[in-house]
Design goal:
heterodimer; A: two-stranded antiparallel ribbon; 9 helices; 45% helix; B: mainly alpha; 10 helices; globular
Chain lengths: 224, 244
Amino acid sequence: MASCTYTVPDKAASGDNFYGAVICNQVYVDYFWNTYGFSGNKAYWDDGWGWDDCCNTSKPLARAFNGCYALTYSASDYLNDSYSAPILNWGRRYVRENIDDLRCFCGDGTAIARSKSGGLVEVYLGFFYSKDVPGRAETLIHESRHQGGKPHDANFPSGSVFGSGKSGADSSWDYEGAWMYGALYLWWYYATGARTTSALRERARQRGNLVIDNAFATHPGFSI
Amino acid sequence: MLPSKGFDTPFLESPDTLETQRTEHPFSFQTSKDKQLNAVIVDAINRMGGVGDDAEESYRHALRSLTKWGPGVLDVIVAEYDDLPEDRYLDRWSLVQLIVELRYPEAVKPLNRIIAARIPAEKVKKSHDMSTVGEEVMIRTTAVEALVRLSADDVAEAREVLLKHAAHRTFSIRRACVQGLMQTGTDDDKRKLRRLLKERKEEGLLKIKQVDVRSVPQPIGGRFVVPPQVKSEAPPPDLRATRE
């Protein structure tokens, strides 16, 4: 068991202040809890993580729900989650179908999230407090892609912010790995994201470009 | 049909525990005694994260309120940027995004300083999915975006700074400057840029194009498809609106 602490500003650009006001409804709480891997994992989301205070956006569970809201509703036609639609539509379906258990831990500060065997995804403090709301949706999609059978298959390119030559990159855009899924989700969020602001969409663009520039062994040759 | 997942069985061992503390906002406003202005800055940044059909309009309204103070507001924003702890990356980014939105030509100098500032060494070297250098780069590429918009507004000094940082040591910053100058620069700016890239043997940067998301290869989804009869539909995005 680990114990951790975090100081959270109420008013900041992460999106939690406003998303939090929307998700505070039992209908959403039930839907997210039962759909995105929280169910069966109450013990992990208790003891300060927000299980008994799930509207409080200074706590991780509400912040995770905010990411789930962005994941679910950021396409204007969110009811269409067909795989022939953009990933902004079907990202939620892909997460739903690939994450069986979503659990929270303090972590050691070296990861946002990790994919384990059997549909288990662990999320750490950085997921809740260093990522903005759409960034959390991106993380869930990234980890879902690992669950869907695509590990990273290359080393980061020279000059990469993730560490030149380290493992953890995808070989190319066409590999259709976790980095491609995450970047493409952010790209669509930037281009057509609904119920959000131009500032959060610009944030998604900057993050998407960072991934495109640094997380592929061979640069895709385009940017957002 | 019985659910395949286990119920929320209590643990025998203890899971991790977390204690959170709240602050009103991340800023100190040590240099600004104008409480009304400080409140408007906090409000504008807060509304960056808005959600709902009126989120953008509320954000725009907050920005319009901020413009009543004129370019002098930049001094307060930049002072807050300088005062924030280095690891408050999202908060620092949000202040730069405010500068992007305000489009004041007076912002060129502070933007140049933000981009030119040394990027601190990576703090999480063992990670593959988080990077403090990456956070710093996003702050700087957002500052580049501010310069690109000023360049589009015909602010010549912004173009000069874009040209200068087209030789930045960080790839993403170089790439953003090159794309921004090619889109908004004069013919003379583009000539200078091509000459610079040729000298540096980096003409390949010109080949990286900003494109529409619809034109790039999309993934083939569809593994592990849930049968339609098991699928549960999401509730509408705004339950308050549907009740009315």
